[in-house]
Amino acid sequence: MTLGEELFAVVRLLIDEHGLRRAVSDPASEPQAREGLVRGLLANKVGEGTLKVLSAAVTARWSSGRELLDGLESLARTALLVRAERGNRLDAVEDELFRLGRIIAAQTELAQVLGASAATPKARPRWWTRCSRARSSRHRDPGAPAGDHAARPRRRRRSRGAHRGRRPRRERSVAYVRSPSS
After folding, report:
1. 3-class secondary structure per residue, the chain
2. Is the entire prediction scored with pTM above 0.70?
3. What per-residue confidence (pLDDT) applies to 54?
4. Most exposed of 3, 59, 138, 145 (fewest Cβ within 10 Å)?
5. 155 and 94 in one domain?
């Protein structure tokens, strides 16, 4: 697995394990204790690079577990985009994200399932499988940010102005697919 894929897997783990998420993001606990917990749990399960990123993340001060998840998810997405860029696949990734957005927009039931906070996590992969059959797979890169990671979106609060003023990577636009919220 790549750095981005491993970070997405850790995000999923922290979403599923609320107690662990609270433990690694608790500002009242010692940063070294949080780092020790992460290293103890994940040392033989993720690569050294991922472990370094996670150690840095959990020793930082977060206002909430949700903020930690947002940060890790952003790092995972960036890692996958950097991989695509280094492999000269960024154009293909942009095209795939555009097509994915069109597929989701055309299937309102799918958009509702992906955007619903009450939807069961098991329902989303079923819909994703159905959706992915409809799209072309000739340009599929396992390191691209679409794919399994899009099948497991999570609801997040919109941060005020979080993306305003950011310069796109290499002066290029990369599409982020968001499904409509109910």
Report:
1. CCHHHHHHHHHHHHHHCHHHHHHHHCCCCCHHHHHHHHHHHHCCCCCHHHHHHHHHHHHCCCCCHHHHHHHHHHHHHHHHHHHHHHCCCHHHHHHHHHHHHHHHHHCHHHHHHHHCCCCCCCHHHHHHHHHHHHCCCCCCCCCCCCCHHHHCCCCCCCCCCCCCCCCCHHHCCCCCCCCCCC
2. no
3. 97
4. 138
5. yes
Which pLDDT score, from 0 to 100, does residue 130 have? Answer: 59
Place of tokens 């697919």: 177
Q: Whose CA is closest to 146, among 8, 47, 12?
A: 8
Cβ atoms of 182 and 116 closer than 8 Å: yes
Q: What is each CA distance from 121 to 15, 60, 172, in whole angstroms?
A: 11, 29, 33
What are the 10-residue block averages of pLDDT along the chain, 182 residues in total? 95 95 95 96 95 96 93 95 95 93 87 67 57 49 48 48 46 58 52
Residue 113 is predicted with a pLDDT of 78
The span from the CA of 9 to the CA of 167, in Å, is: 27
Please report, as a single letter, which amino acid is at residue 44: N
**Domain end among 86, 118, 147:** 86
Structure tokens at 140: 């599929």
Same domain (yes/no): 97, 175: yes
